[in-house]
Amino acid sequence: MPKLFINENKKVGKIHEEIYGHFAEHLGRCIYEGLYVGEDSPIPNVNGMRTDVVEALKELDIPVLRWPGGCFADEYHWKDGIGPKEDRKKMINTNWGDVLEDNSFGTHEFMELCSQLGCKTYINGNVGSGTVQEMAEWIEYMTFDGVSPLADLRRKNGREKPWRVDYFGVGNENWGCGGNMTPEYYANLYRRYQTFVKQYNVDAPIYKICCGANVDDYHWTEKVMAAAHDHTEAKFHGHMDGISLHYYVHPGGWDNKGSATRFDEAEWFRTMYKAMFIEQLVEEHGRIMDIFDPERKIDLIVDEWGCWFDVEPGTNPGFLYQQNTMRDALVACISLNIFNKHCRRIKMANIAQVVNVLQAMVLTEGEKMLLTPTYYIFRMYKHHQNGQLLDSFAETTEIGTDDYKVPDISESVSMDEKGNIHITLGNLSITEEKDLEILFFAKKAEKARATILTGAMDSYNTFENPENIKEEEYHAFSIMENGIINVILPPCSVVHIEVEA
Ligand code: AHR
Q1: Residue 304 is a catalytic residue
Q2: Which of 8, 75, 304, 471 is labelled catalytic?
Q3: Region 75-101: what's the mean pLDDT?
């Protein structure tokens, strides 16, 4: 029987809660309808935020939310989204469907949403079409406690105290939708713009994120790190605290993403293989970062990741609305296990996106809401947040097609503050059940509980049948007298086992 070895005495590093972060862009029905319906909506809401979605997301213990984009961030002018709603400027969302953006969701609404979710704030600034002054003023508006024109404007708009901005992105995808810049040009702009991200609250300095590479663009990482990483003149932090990486899983490539719900076994394995590729990206970009920052002061921030398929037939192509199957669940399982295992490098990751866009947690249709298989993965994995990654190794077998081979099992293990051990396991086979023996270095397991998410590879939840796939208690495991755990992993399943301290 294959084994999973866990050394509970070897703590590899802290799994930052931010690895379980999320992303909400002004894109399709993510913000409008998905999160925000307005105070006057017949859909139950608190200060405009829809109650059903907020309550569902609260169960995930969302640690941080990124906003307002994405590509939208580099055409967003924050002053359009403050003050009386009727006076707010309207704009066309040119990246996402050319629809009218009425700016009724702006800075105050985002902060209200984060406060309802109880999460940290990650705001992405505009370098592509915004000025340094505009960025500087946004920071002043949000975080300055004293008397100043911008702080006074915030007060006039109803917010006396400054907010806390935990993370700030200086531009997004500036190699593409954020300005089509060369890395050298962006690196210089980054140095300049970040200078004016002032630290008004010295007790809670803003963590600055530099725009990093798309997928395997190692040249970008090298040039940007070389020119912009400097720590030497830092007053609080250096020029940058983190550099981002974006990676989407497109099973058939950018021009042939494929259906979210109709796919065969070959496409299943192509998807799994591409999900596994994020590990190589983290390692390769990390090697380049190490050249310039050998002390590893700068973190890797995977602030966009997930599955990107064709939009659901009949929906607006600019809205990126897709269904979510067990395949998405296994991609999330693989990715999060990899992020956990690289927690010494990765400080934050933000799946794209939280509601109604790409690999979402929640889908809505008017007043209806459903939870996706990916939602349940985040609920099962939340126990890893702030845990200590434990050294673990699984004996695996290669499965897949001739071109796309993957290990049959994905795993990661952590210990929480109470000493309980959390094991998350994925069986990537869609036909074979796996029996696994779980052995500890010295510990003898005595008490454990487990939950499972499983179903056919292409199964998903619909508004008619919203509970087709859901997390359930799982009992197909046993604890031997010697403290070894035997567990059966059904095909296409993800299991979370909690072993008591
Ligand atoms: O998440 C959708 C889009 O993907 C984001 O706006 C952009 O940053 C990326 O290309």
Answers
A1: yes
A2: 304
A3: 96
For ligand 1, what atom is nearest to the CA of residue 358?
Answer: 1
Q: CA separation (Å) from 357 to 44, 310, 452, 457?
A: 22, 11, 25, 21
Q: What is the pTM of this model?
A: 0.97
Question: Is 461 in contact with 370 (CB distance < 8 Å)?
Answer: yes
**Position of tokens 């002061």?**
297
Mean residue pLDDT across the chain: 96
Q: What is the pLDDT of residues 214-227, one digit of tens each?
A: 999 999 999 999 99
* CA atoms of 159 and 138, how far apart (whole Å): 14
Nearest of 331, 333, 172, 323 to residue 249 by alpha carbon: 331
Average pLDDT, integer, range 341-361: 98
Three-state DSSP at 303 gives strand
Q: What is the DSSP string of 149-195?
A: HHHHHHHHTT--SPPP--EEEE-S-TTTTTT---HHHHHHHHHHHHH
Residue 25 Cα: closest atom of ligand 1: 6
What is the Cα–Cα distance from 22 to 31, expressed in whole angstroms? 13
Catalytic residue, from 8, 33, 173, 411: name it. Answer: 173
Distance 22 CA to ligand 1 centre (A): 13
Ligand 1, atom nearest to 69 Cα:
6
Is residue 102's pLDDT more than 90?
yes
Pocket of ligand 1 from Cβ distances under 6 Å: 25, 69-71, 172-173, 304, 352-353, 358
Tokens, residue 439: 């052995």
Per-residue model confidence as pLDDT tens digits over 167-211: 999 999 999 999 999 999 999 999 999 999 999 999 999 999 999
Q: Does the active-site annotation cover 173? A: yes
Closest Cα to atom 9, ligand 1: which residue? 70
Residue 242 CA to residue 207 CA, distance in Å, equals: 8
Name which residue sits closest to atom 7 of ligand 1, judged by CA. Answer: 70
Q: How many CB atoms lie within 10 A of CB 480?
A: 12
Task: Tell me, in angstroms, the distance from the centre of ligand 1 to residue 499's CA.
Answer: 38
Q: How big is the chain, counted in residues?
A: 501
pLDDT band at 235 (very low <50, low <70, confident <90, very high): very low
